[in-house]
Amino acid sequence: MIALLPLALLVAQTAPATPPAPTTSEAPKPVMVRIAMQTSLGPVVIDLDRTHAPITTANFLRYVDQHRLDGVTFYRTVRVAPDFGFVQFGIQNEPKRILPPIAHEPTTKTGIKHTDGTISIARLAPGSARGDFTIMVGDQPSLDADPSKPGDNLGYAAFGHVVEGMDVIHKILDQPADPAKGPFKGEMLAAPVKILSAKRVAGAN
């Protein structure tokens, strides 16, 4: 928010000094939670926005705190162009890791857009998201909610940003895919990139 600059007040020389009018205060900084993921290609550090996306952030933290992401993989990449697309990781509906689905937090509500480095949660219908996540490489506004569109126009729920390790995300995006593997032909990695551990760390506010 841009602070409003108060106009100078002209007073007579004999008038007592008065304190300046208060300026409009800036919006408080969001509460962020920092997560460090160690992958087989290197570390990735993510700040999650607990203030603006509390439901989606709390869901991710449950997966982290219960060690449900330890040992899962980055298994899918959508590479639209060089250095543009997204990578996907998570539990892939593995029964021993899965938690209940969560309510959908659209970008029109959170204000968190799908820009470069944003983490978002994968879903089918709104309210079906569980434990699979995507990280953007490049700005992708098409994944934001758009009320002007017909049908399901709620987009995906973004809830944080990579703050360290985008070089690792780019390496993952560049990994070769198996053209015949899995439900997304040409997008499933031939050799998935393993997440060795995911945990909370100090550093965010």
TrEMBL record:
Is Signal tagged as a keyword? yes
> What's the short name of a Pfam family annotated to this entry?
Pro_isomerase
MF-aspect GO terms: peptidyl-prolyl cis-trans isomerase activity
InterPro entries in the cross-refs: Cyclophilin-like_dom_sf, Cyclophilin-type_PPIase_dom, E_coli_cyclophilin_A-like
What EC class does the entry list? isomerase
Q: Which UniProt keywords apply?
A: Isomerase, Rotamase, Signal
Q: Give the PPIase cyclophilin-type domain ranges.
A: 38-200
Q: Which N-terminal stretch is annotated as signal sequence?
A: 1-17
Q: Which domain of life is it from?
A: Bacteria
Q: What is its EC number?
A: 5.2.1.8
Keyword Isomerase tagged: yes
What protein name applies here?
Answer: peptidylprolyl isomerase
